[in-house]
Amino acid sequence: MKTDIEIAQEAVLEPIEKVAERCGIPAKELELYGKYKAKLSEEYIRSLQSREDGKLILVTAINPTPAGEGKTTTTVGLGEAFGKLKKNAVIALREPSLGPCFGIKGGAAGGGMAQVVPMEDLNLHFTGDFHAITSANNLLAALLDNHIQQGNALRIDTRNIVWKRCLDMNDRVLRNVVVGLGSRADGFVREDHFVITVASEIMAVLCLAENMEDLKKRLGKIVVAYDLEGQPVTANDLQAVGSMAALLKDAIKPNLIQTLEHTPALVHGGPFANIAHGCNSVRATRTALKMADYCITEAGFGADLGAEKFFDIKCRAAGLKPDAVVLVATVRALKYNGGVKKEDLSEENLEALKAGIVNLEKHIENLQKYGVPVVVTLNRFLTDTEKELSYVERFCLERDCEFALSEVWEKGGEGGLSLAKKVLAALEKESRFHVLYERKLPLREKIETVAKEIYGAAGVSYAASAAKQIAQLEKLGFGDLPVCMAKTQYSLSDDAALLGRPEGFTVTIREVYVSAGAGFVVVLTGAVMTMPGLPKMPAAFRIDVDEEGKITGLF
Q1: Could you tell me the CA-to-CA distances from 57 to 78, 162, 263, 272, 406 in Å, in that order?
Q2: 183 vs 7: CA distance, rounded Å
Q3: Selected catalytic residue, list 102, 301, 403, 505
Q4: Any catalytic annotation for residue 310?
Q5: Annotated catalytic residue 253
Q6: Which of 71, 227, 230, 356 is least surrounded by Cβ atoms within 10 Å, i.e. has the fewest?
């Protein structure tokens, strides 16, 4: 069986100008990055504003397991299937982070016959957006430390600096560092921290900004520290906005590539879903809605993280109204949730399936709370039995969901025709989309609404420091912002070991801080990290390049 990278490398790609031409994009509106990648010009994006929006379709999934679910693969395959049905569709995806590519998760181009290409470019550097974000983040950090070194006119409390440096790589030893060691000229000695680039507030800001003017306004609001009176010190106070924006002037433009079947895909931005809001950029989604009759997008990790933030943060901020949502699962993943070991998932086990399907049930219930029609799809494996597939189908139909099997990994768009037809049927239903909570609620009430309604928690407990942080943020006027819950992706709870549908658990809030530029309050739960580490056997061990420049081992 061929690997994903082998399939991608054997594919015959169309010049990106031809892909663009079929979308009605003139060649002059492309900023080319080689033969198969391009950014869309600002002039073209502005020219779309008078067009009607197409239908917005979100693809999400159950909690990820080692058995695999295939959310991005389904998103890509669904777009290809729409093409088979002669429907005008554009896919909108996130860009991959180098951290997971070299760590444990792998790339984010889809898989099998449902991939976006060029796959190696996408997973490694792409058009440089993440490097620009990293540079802008660290420029702000450098300006902050330089301000302190040059006399600290803003009277920054050096014990209350909240801005962190970043790096787009999993590197646990950088979580907590000391900077400024050496002579007096080397800066003020203090504890500092790193986050992974996809957890940087600048990533979230870029993905929520409407245009350059909005980007600069949001950058200026970023809180970097607090002064001796406890008042916020912002990037605007440090006179950092113009130079940061200059670094981001190209990164703000959406990137156009294609699928293996030449369906256009806008791939732009990539906040982590268990740390940040987990969605591609508002600009890419809005552009896709104007370019096509259907925009198919995804949100990161399970619906408890990615979909909740897509609805309550991205849609709220951008005024988006999704028309349907696709919920991805596999029989293997459901049996894993039912207690079956990974090595035994190929065996038929209806009892384990019945025990584990409660995870799917909770995600269905959660999505229906937003008033959007739901389609459940199973990525089919050869080892799935008819009894298992029929059980899941009956289960979904009894819960007022459309249901379809998906074979896009093996067959590309042809394997997604059944799913595409069910999505089209769901689009005929009325979407009564609404957010889960109102902004005016106190922060604690918003936190507890998500924890109880989406995670299924019995209650929420707050570390003393977190309770103090909430009180301070509300006092400073940040209490009306939505909450961005940072939680493990592996469980509905904040404990990664609790599979299925946990009940009676308490979510522990350990830290709360504001991302004022992004426009939300970040809430850290459990042991979730903003700078991941590498596993014992990282994916980096398998990656190589030969003398002709051909990359291997990147999946």
Answers
A1: 10, 37, 16, 20, 16
A2: 55
A3: 301
A4: no
A5: no
A6: 230
